[in-house]
């Protein structure tokens, strides 16, 4: 777990270097599937002071098995994603400005160009609004449930991000560093989508043929989106 703690620390520091978070916003975690254990950022600790030993380890039910500090307040969302999406190895939550703006507008990000299609096969989905009962109840877990729901039967690695309505983006990948990479790309395509829609509100976006061409040549795999 020492190596995973170092990877998760590095991934947390990378979201700061990439300008995706301010102060103590955001969090990154990673999972060891063989041990069934998750390493996550501690809650509220400034990134510039964070050390690998400050990271917290829990099991998939959220029981803390290592660390003195409290785990990130978003832990239950990360855990639900790990339980639901068995292929993922890292989760990132940020409040990056353009992706968060689409989340606050409660709009999915449509595939408007090949930059999007290289990384996200189809739109980046947005969740439904949480109910008052969910917000007053197990809010953080309900956030994870809403993310998984908005994926339906799409492959979560074909569009490794979701926008949580009124909140912000969650991204994931096969590892913590791949999840951060996807969060950086998401912010870039969210920025371009904002400008594109401002310049041409009636844009129709990329054709299915262009999206297929770009996504498949980059990933070399078979589509599931749009086939079910
Ligand atoms: O979503 C939020 C707040 O809305 C989080 O990103 C927090 O800002 C980070 O909390 P910790 O991970 O430090 O508990």
Automatic annotation (TrEMBL):
E.C. code: 5.1.3.4
Keyword Zinc: yes
Keywords: Metal-binding, Zinc
Gene3D superfamilies attached to this UniProt entry: Class II aldolase/adducin N-terminal domain (3.40.225.10)
Record SUPFAM superfamilies: AraD/HMP-PK domain-like
Cofactor(s) the record lists: Zn(2+)
Catalytic activity: L-ribulose 5-phosphate = D-xylulose 5-phosphate
Pfam families assigned: Aldolase_II
Residue span, Class II aldolase/adducin N-terminal domain: 6-194
InterPro entries with a match to the protein in the record: Aldolase_class_II_sugar_metab (IPR050197), Aldolase_II/adducin_N (IPR001303), Aldolase_II/adducin_N_sf (IPR036409)
Family statement: Belongs to the aldolase class II family. AraD/FucA subfamily.
Protein name: L-ribulose-5-phosphate 4-epimerase
């Amino acid at each position: 777990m020492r190596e995973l703690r170092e990877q998760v620390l590095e991934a947390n520091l990378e979201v700061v270097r990439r300008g995706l978070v301010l102060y103590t916003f955001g969090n990154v975690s990673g999972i060891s599937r063989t041990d069934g254990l998750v390493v996550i950022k501690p809650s509220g600790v400034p990134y510039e002071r964070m050390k690998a030993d400050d990271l917290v380890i829990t099991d998939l039910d959220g029981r803390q098995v290592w660390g003195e500090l409290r785990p990130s307040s978003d832990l239950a969302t990360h855990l639900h994603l790990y339980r639901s999406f068995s292929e993922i190895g890292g989760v990132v939550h940020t409040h990056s400005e353009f992706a968060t703006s689409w989340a606050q507008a409660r709009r999915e990000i449509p595939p408007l160009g090949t930059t999007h299609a290289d990384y996200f096969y189809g739109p980046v989905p947005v969740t439904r609004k949480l109910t008052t009962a969910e917000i007053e109840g197990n809010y953080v877990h309900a956030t994870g449930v809403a993310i998984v729901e908005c994926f339906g039967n799409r492959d979560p690695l074909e569009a490794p991000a979701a926008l949580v309505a009124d909140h912000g983006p969650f991204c994931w990948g096969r590892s913590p560093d791949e999840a951060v990479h996807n969060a950086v790309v998401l912010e870039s395509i969210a920025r371009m989508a904002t400008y594109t829609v401002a310049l041409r509100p009636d844009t129709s976006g990329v054709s299915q043929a262009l999206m297929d061409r770009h996504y498949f040549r980059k990933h070399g795999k078979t589509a599931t989106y749009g086939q079910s």
